[in-house]
Amino acid sequence: MIPLFNPFPIVCADLRRNRLLVLVTLLLVALSVAAGIAVISQERALRQGSARAADDFDLLVGAPGSPTQLVLTAVYLRPQATPLLDGDILEKASSTRGVKYAAPIAFGDNWQGYPIIGTIADFANRGGKLMPTEGRVFRQRGEAVIGAAVKLPLGATLSPQHGLHHDDDDDDGDHPDHAHAAMHYTVVGRLPPRHNIWDNAILVPVEDVWAVHGLPDGHGINDAQRIGPPWNAARLPGVPAIVIKPDSIAAAYGLRGQFRNPRSIALFPAEVLNDLYLTLGNVRDLMSVLALTTQVLVVAAVLMALLVGFLARRRQFAVLRAMGASRRYVFCVVWIEVALLIVGGAVLGLLLGFGASMLLSHWLQAQTGFAMPVSLGASEGFLVGGLVLAGGLIGMLPAWLAFRRSIAEGLTVG
Predict the structure, then answer these.
(1) Max CA-CA distance within the chain?
(2) Which of 122, 244, 245, 354: disulfide with 59, CB 3.0–4.6 Å?
(3) What ranges do the domains of the chain cover?
């Protein structure tokens, strides 16, 4: 006997009987949803990860040139042919009112692929905010503090290799670099994880980086072992960038204006990142429109397939009516089948999109060096919810066609 009050037995039987159609429909809807979820969540992850990587850089000062290049060089350790800032600007920045510390950032060497960065102790521990999990920050020449991801124990010694990347082909001994080979660093501390490219950095006194490249060390002849400010402007070489820690927000804006002149540029990394985010936002919006268009087309294709399927099953519905099923019962059977396919595909697409975004974030983290936290937000909810609502409304069309068809018309063959 037909359970006239419960449409689900008929729905389950229909779905089992049409497994191939059900599978294809679920996959089509899921893939269209997954594309939109992956685009939206990945753009948010990139935005959050890149912004968090710039948290330690309140104000950047560099030589006149590209602000984007300055941020990529100093914040994300992507050095290019960066113009050098005159050394006397470092001395001025270090002694200017409103500056907690002005840290030079010097590149040029690596150890087995880990970049060696010359700076001052105040930047290494971010003014005392970033206390090492092991050991301490360097206090004298020849000492190094390493990022959390550097595979070295405390007490290990290393010699720098010239260049920003390790290349085994350069280690054949044909062109020995005596200055680098004679320089030895001892690891005295390990910093806590920052979840960015600086976890792979080896931080050393900037004076050692200058010395190994044959440059003056920024101090007087009688202060050969001294590290950090105060500096001797006459003996300061050029630096790629200076990180300034202001003592207040008002001081930060004043310092930015002071160091924006024909000899230097000064910027907040957030300024450059905002321009990047606007571009990313435009790309995200375009991709979201494309994903939404794909969803509409997929749902339309699914609807056409279901309409054809329901028209082929009109005799089945007429038989149900003849056995006592009401029009409302048939309407519910058809609508529930369509709604289950759309909702099931949307949920599956949500899971696939989130998983794809997670995998992409892991891959991009290896490329960029900073972590990108993947999460689901309101945008993804609106995307899935909109599709489910649209599916519910679309499902009413075949249900209405089945509802209004008479028993005699349904039993008529041909």
Answers:
(1) 109
(2) 244
(3) 8-51+275-411, 59-267
